[in-house]
Amino acid sequence: DEAHKFAVHADWLLRDAMRCATCAEALADVTFVAATTARQRENLPVLSARQATEVLREAATRGKIAVVFGNEATGLTNDELNLANLGVMIPTAGHSSNPRLQKRDNYTGGSG
Predict the structure, then answer these.
(1) Strand partners, 66
(2) Which of 17, 43, 47, 106 shows a CA-CA span of 20 to 30 A to 82?
């Protein structure tokens, strides 16, 4: 199975995972959902990953929480995002909001 090949030391995670046909089915018993997103949304409050940790920690005191990740190329669908209570932006290489870090992340090995 391809997933097990990439799981390396997390094969237990795949072995114990519940298989669901839809995202909604997977989240049926969850009380708070955070979904990753690459941009601001009109209908969903969006926080940085650091800010979201406090919200998630507090939500976990009230019930089961989940963080939903989309695939790297296309992310989550609008229907999947509609299931979320919170959007979370996780910076990726070269896409930092801090201009000083953007320059560092774009370093290509040249001098100057």
Answers:
(1) 33
(2) 17
The residue among 77, 63, 65 whose CA lies nearest residue 34 is 65
Q: How far apart are CA 104 and CA 35, in angstroms?
A: 28
* Burial zone of 80 (CB within 10 Å; 0-12 exposed, 13-18 middle, 19+ buried): middle
Q: Which residue has the tokens 């090949």?
A: 5
Q: What is the pLDDT of residues 57-111, one digit of tens each?
A: 999 999 999 999 998 888 999 999 999 999 999 877 655 555 554 444 443 444 4
Name the pTM for this structure: 0.74
Instruction: Return the residue matching tokens 């601001």.
Output: 40
34 neighbors 56 (Cβ within 8 angstroms): yes
Q: What type of residue sits at position 103?
A: K
Helix, strand, or coil here: 98?
A: coil
30's CB contacts (< 8 A; 6+ apart) are 63, 64, 65, 66
